[in-house]
Fold this sequence. Notes:
By secondary structure, the chain is an alpha/beta fold. The chain has a domain at 2-233 and 319-369 and 503-524. Helices cover 50% and strands 15% of the residues. The chain is built from 22 helices and 15 strands. Strand 12, helix 13 (338-354) and strand 13 (360-363) form a beta-alpha-beta unit. Helix 10 (245-261) crosses helix 13 (338-354), helix 16 packs across helix 18 (437-466) and helix 16 packs across helix 19 (468-481). The N and C termini lie close together (5 Å).
Amino acid sequence: MECSCVRQTELPNTSKLFADLVYDFDRVRDLYPWRPNDLDAVAEASKFAFPEDRRAAIVRALTPLNRGNPSLEKLAQPGVVAIVTGQQVGLFSGPAYTVYKALTAIKIASELAARGIAAVPVFWLATEDHDLAEVDHAWVFGADHRPVRLHADGPANNGTRPVGGVVPENTPLAELRLALDGLPFADEAAGLVERAYQPGRSIGSSFASAIRELFAPYGLLLIDPMDAGVRAVAAPFMSAAVEIMPELVEALRARSGELTSRGYHAQVLVDKQTSLVFLLEEGHRIGLKHSGGEFVAHHRKWTGAELVARAGELSPNALLRPVLQDYLLPTAAYVGGPAELAYLAQSRVLYERLLGRQPVAFPRAGFTLVDERAAKRMRRYGLTLTGLLTNDQSLQATMSARLVPAELRDSLACAEQTVAKALDSLSAELGRFDVSLNGALSTSRRKIEYQLGKIGRKTASQIMARDAQAAADAKSLSGLVYPEKHLQERLYSIVPFLAKFGPGLIGDLYAQVDLSSPDHRVIVV
């Protein structure tokens, strides 16, 4: 495998907060307790006492979902820490970075074990989220790298139902096979999906089945926060959060203001009526506001005491969720993407008040995968990953410029240089004669240079129009690397990559995870 690295700051939509976290940690040292991409930090963060009664309770709760996984017995032992990651449960395992998160967590646990620190990787199944539109579809591609969106119809009016329990009315398995047609391992990849996403199964159950099969050799534990046993262990924490809700919200508002004043942005908007909890009732996840000492939703009210009595039916919001996770588990590091790790700068004030410790915020590995044929095309046109992260017109302009014959390219460049030299000479002569004439020359010069550039661009465009292969190459490269104007890992499921490169891809990518660097990696498979 060939590998090259791209800094996160060269990728689209990288936030200033995440960039400072991974490349200039001293700027955010007061916002995060540990340096990222640092196994020494994880080793230090592993030194805390976790209540053994809670450990035993969470192991019992995890047993039905992880029966036979050797990591479960390991987690039951005193002093063993967890390396945690997670993702919304979605169709066909969700975006490819879901797999990269898991591989990163597994690699950290393995490296800690080599240092004599017992650790297990854990995957948090985000089954409580209620935005079905985010997870009811998957993007894949076939031999032509054309992006294909596959959609699973779900029950109507699902806006407040946790997605983990939603049973799709149809799962596009036949459409998947059709979309993957022409890829060498399409049958194997489709078979994995069909074993997991069987008709009548919920999205959460299917997703868990796919993740379990993908990572069977690696001892990855799964945790489902909707499980009754897990909720029972979480209840005391949720009670404590409700009891001091005003204090937590004020601390978050102060932290949000601080982030904004430093040029960062708060990931989650917090106002005086913000509640950090939802109520799970009759299959719905009800958003609550906090007002006048009461919790309010849809013309209904609950006192804090009433919610404390129903703590087992409460669900955390995005800021409280990681703190609950690390209450339930002896977490030494949390593996997340840029947005998730930015959340933790806000959530730190919750950790301080509710938990008294916070794990290392560890960036997940990021990959762009290309085959040798695509890599050759990139070399032919002088393209890098960042050169492909653009619109179709700019990409075709870059590629067409490379197709202009060398002699013609030299002639165009020579013409531009000759004209520039002549205009420089004329400008000097006009300046000696009447300096006011230089203004008119400057205007004319811009027009002349534009027209010369236009000739070059039109020449390149004409060559591109004549070269059907180049046009096809542009479409194929864009579809593979930057589909629908997204990094491939943020759009495509891992399924088409398994269909393209084979089931051994997971092990190959595991070998490419570099825990010491936050950079995005371009892998030629």
